[in-house]
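Example record for the data management plan.
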Amino acid sequence: MALNPYLIFDGNTREVVEFCAKVFGTEEPNFMTFGSIHSEEELPPGAKDLIMHTYLEIAGTKLMFSDNYPGMEYREGNNFTLAYISSDEAAMRDAFDKLKEGGTVQMELQEVPWSKSYGSLTDKYNIQWQFSHEE
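Corresponding structural encoding:
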């Protein structure tokens, strides 16, 4: 189980991650683009090569990164989420249900190509969360 910071940038994630990898001497990151998961017809113009997900292991912590999805509001200061990663699906679902009370669900927990159960929400204190089941 882990709680990872997830940083979101406005189209320059690849540059940021490559810079951080050099600064901290990490392994070369793997980049998942929006175009590698969705067909070009499903995506807004210019989204195909944007980074959907990548991460760096820095000092024992997984720091995760993504580009902001085109059309979604981007403002520095709201460009991070906390990613709750767990192999205990029941505990994850329980936490999701409790945090969504008084909050706003962006995506209910559901199966996606990279996770048996993934979802996102903003809790009543305006903290953005992502949940992902990993075995």
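Summary line stored alongside the record: Strands lie at 2-9, 32-33, 51-58, 61-67, 80-86, 104-112, 115-122, 128-133.
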